[in-house]
Amino acid sequence: MIRIEKLSKVYYPGTVNEIAAIRDVDLHVAEGDFITIIGSNGAGKTTLFNLVSGNQPATTGRIFVNDTDVTSHAEYKRAAYIGRIFQDPRLGTAGRMALEDNLIIAYKKGMKGLKISLNSRRRDFFREQLTKLEMGLENRLKDNVGLFSGGQRQALTLLMMVISRPSLILLDEHTAALDPKNASIVLDLTTRFIREYGLTTMMVTHNMGQAIAYGNRLLMMDKGEIILDVAGEEKKNLTVEKLIDKFHKIRHASFENDEALLSP
Amino acid sequence: MIEGILVEGLIYALMALGVFVTFRILDFPDLTVDGSFPLGAAIMAAMVVAGANPWFALLVAFAGGVSAGVVTAMIHNKLKVPHLLAGILTMTMLYSINIRVLGNRANIPLIRQETILSQVAAFGAAWFSTEWSMFVFFVIVIVVTKLLLDVFFRTDLGLTIGALGDNPQMVIATGVNPEHLKVIGVALSNGLVAVSGAFAAQFLGFADVNLGLGIIIAGLASVMIGEFLLRSNRIGVLTLRVILGSILFRAIMYLGRFYGYYINLTPNDLKLITGLLIIVSLIITKTRTPRTRPWKPLSNSAIPEPRPATGPAVIEETDQ
Ligand SMILES: Nc1ncnc2c1ncn2[C@@H]1O[C@H](COP(=O)(O)OP(=O)(O)OP(=O)(O)O)[C@@H](O)[C@H]1O
Ligand SMILES: [Mg+2]
């Protein structure tokens, strides 16, 4: 489904501040893959998502989606099939607009016309969808989204993404800003939606246990490279200890700092 | 006198609605207005003097304003120039263009010309005085415009334009090019402003290249005064309060003109008063308790934080 070839991203090239955030990454994501991605701060996880989603141009390399070269396609065009959720719950929704308005904008993907699509049939559909979140939002269609809690807003972002029917979703620590209870609610919802709609998923997390428990494939990134790629049985048998051990072997580096960062 | 204030308030309300669309809905502080207002006036005056149908001239004035808005939005989109600078560029260029439209003069008188307003006065003469005929006419114009805007901002396109002013990242995520929305919004805004200018020229009896001087500030003041009158997040109320704000602003200016004399104010001081009015509005808005957010703000390394709440370019509780 997604093929990434020799992808790299250099910030401030040719200056003393030059940063190679992504280095020569090759990656093939199959339809239906649920990939978890771990790596220390600055490893390049967010940058990888920025390149795949088209938020930033790649320095070199190509990105193919279903064998179409999308490397030069604008972000809004790729949004037709790529959904993305950020860590900040405010980035996914328009806080100063009512819940129902947010939903209709997400539902009608692509350039909009002069039609008024919000009608009672759609509202019923939205209510039905909102009940899946089990947060009582189905009774708050006219409320501004800015009034909702971070957890409610992130769950809503998830729902809005799902009803816009993407084929690939990029989740960037999307539960990290939430308290533990809300984080687990949103994570449960995430896995439910992924299963229900058969979404191909890439999920960045700082929680090693989560990265091991979820998905069928695990990537570890470090210094702009994918240094570990485990799938299938091997992934199922992973433990946090084994993961740390593998990192040691690959990098021959002291893991002390990273151990602290990648909490199990 | 009261009918004069009302008519003026309604004419300038069209301009204030345009300012509302860019500043409040689109979050695109657009200064083109200072040029597109006299552009509308100039087109109307030049065409009427040349013997054109004034209704057709109104349409051309609207188209002129739309074009000015498109130019500003394109400068901003394509050259990645900040909003304010893009608007100032267009506004400055319009100064020369407006003089051209006026026939290389600074103004054109419209006395004894057949205009929409002279038609309205003649038509209403059986029932009303000239002033009240105009008042009835502009009430109709404003109500129709307001209702059209209300409907527009409920359509899928209008809602998305509203979302752009709130969260551009979300608009991109729904597969829409924000640049297109900016062109549409800024064009619509300047179209309204130019129509307002066209009516102002007929009402004042002349078009002048300096008619637009500081008009953006008058529009902004009207929008902000309106915001003190009514609090709501419904588009119907938002547009209504812009109109009420415009009328109230004209009333304040009228008082300044007629009674300011006693405290040694001259008409030249009105711009100062307008500016002070805005500053006072800002101070009042700032000292109101800010709404608290239920979660801590966080930033994602690659995506800029949503813009901070500063000054007039932010809608307090807007939504459609
Ligand atoms: N827009 C940018 N401009 C300049 N440098 C950037 C930009 N975005 C990322 N970088 C740099 O690229 C490197 C990779 O950053 P990135 O945000 O991708 O890391 P990450 O793996 O997502 O880290 P974290 O776990 O902290 O979110 C870092 O050194 C970062 O400073
Ligand atoms: Mg990151």
Written account of the structure:
The complex is a heterodimer of chains A (264) and B (320). By secondary structure, chain A is an alpha/beta fold. Chain A has a single domain, classed as Rossmann fold (3-Layer(aba) Sandwich), CATH 3.40.50. Helices cover 36% and strands 23% of the residues of chain A. Chain A is built from 10 helices and 10 strands. Chain A has helices spanning 45-53, 75-78, 99-107, 120-131, 150-163, 180-197, 208-213, 232-236, 240-251, 256-261; strands at 2-11, 19-29, 34-39, 60-65, 68-69, 82-85, 168-172, 200-204, 217-222, 225-231. In chain A, strand 4 (60-65) and strand 5 form a beta hairpin. The model of chain A has no long low-confidence stretch (mean pLDDT 91). Chain B has 320 residues and is mainly alpha-helical. Chain B has a single domain (2-287), classed as Orthogonal Bundle (ABC transporter involved in vitamin B12 uptake, BtuC), CATH 1.10.3470. Chain B has helices at 2-26, 33-49, 54-79, 83-101, 116-124, 130-152, 156-166, 168-173, 178-204, 215-229, 235-259, 270-287; strands at residues 107-109, 206-208. In chain B, strands 1-2 form a two-stranded antiparallel sheet. In chain B, helix 2 crosses helix 9 and helix 3 packs antiparallel against helix 9. Classes of the chains: A alpha/beta (264), B mainly alpha (320). Chains A and B meet through helix 1, helix 2 and helix 3 of A and helix 7 and helix 8 of B. Adenosine-5'-triphosphate is lined by residues 11, 19, 21, 39, 41-47 of chain A. The site of magnesium ion (MG) has 3 residues of chain A, from helix 1.
